[in-house]
Amino acid sequence: MTHPKKRIGILTSGGDCPGLNAVIRAVVKCSSRKGWEVYGIPYGTDGFIDVATGTRQPEDMKLNEHGYDIPGLLQGLDVLQFLSGSVLGSLSKGNTEKPEVAQQILEGYKRLELDGLVAIGGDGSLDIIYDLAVKGNWNMIGVPKTIDNDVPFTERSVGFQTAVDTVTEALYNLTFTAASHERVMVAEVMGRDAGHLALHAGIAGGADVILIPELTPVLDEKAIAQICDKIASLRQDKRKFALVVVAEGVKHEDRRQHRNIGDYLAQQIKLYSQKLCSLDRPEFCGLDEIDTRVTVLGHLQRSGTPSSFDRILATAFGIKAVELIEHGHYNRLVVWEGGKVESKPLDLVIQLVRQCHQEKRCASPVDPNGFMVQTARALGIYVGDASHSVEYNGSNVPATPTAVS
After folding, report:
1. Mean of the pLDDT values across residues 289-301?
2. Which alpha helices (DSSP H) does 279-335 contain, by range?
3. Which are the catalytic amino acids?
4. Disulfide engineering: 154 pairs with which of 94, 294, 335, 348, CB 3.0-4.6 Å?
């Protein structure tokens, strides 16, 4: 069965992460072999506005198989899979809720005469683009990317593994300065309201304490006491330093999320140790004098050369997106499930995302009783008290729909 020539668009939206260019590369290379045309939409949905207003012409957005050429003897060198960021640019914020802006986006899409759109994004940006797709009757394929790994239905999102590697390397380096100066090193990592990044990197990086929203949603007095217990027990075993990883989604005692949660944690460790020492708990005396340093890894976690796994995942996702378009299976999310690339209906994915966001909970949290948490506990890592953990419902992911092969 032959399929007619198609004209598809591709864009990246939301925060950048390693592997985006590898998805773009795979879509362009796979489509080129089918004789299709691929148009790169710059800066997310803003690119459609540029087309609608005449700022950009469609012919200027057409992508060739090599992505771009390098002058000299290496002309045509295919390097996209090695580059971080997005050669198309991305958009973290937009005004699509404004009717006039949404109308311009819909008009730009119409002018491009696309048969389908590959949208690479996290749960928030995919939600926004899906809403536009419904209004404009677009044929959309979603590709999950986020260092938070919190897109439902997929076990892995593009960019997550590289971010884990980046944080792991940082923890490795922090360990030696902590040991040299007998310090408590606190590393604050990203993840939004999910603890996947902190948990995976913390285990790989040799952390003594890992604090994630699912197990330590609030740094209350009980949590601080248990953290101090862990650090004190290390010192009693003649281990004079400690490595603490805290996810940005962990909240202050006032149950609100603030910036600089790492600094707050360091301060509380010192204050609570003083309190315990004054209550004739000698094992805590001196903890308040330990040099506690905080490192906020910040946007370094979004950069770095994509890992081999992220390159493979991104490539497989891009090829799957093209296959879905070829066979007319639209409005699907490409996912990684059981070591294979599958797809799920976007309407179910977005429905779950919207429900969770409305209830202010993560759409794909860490399972408090899952394998990774059990692994951390078996190693003696403090990951929080079970009584602290937020409610986890395995039905956060509905019954798996029939996948399109």
Report:
1. 87
2. 308-326
3. 148
4. 335
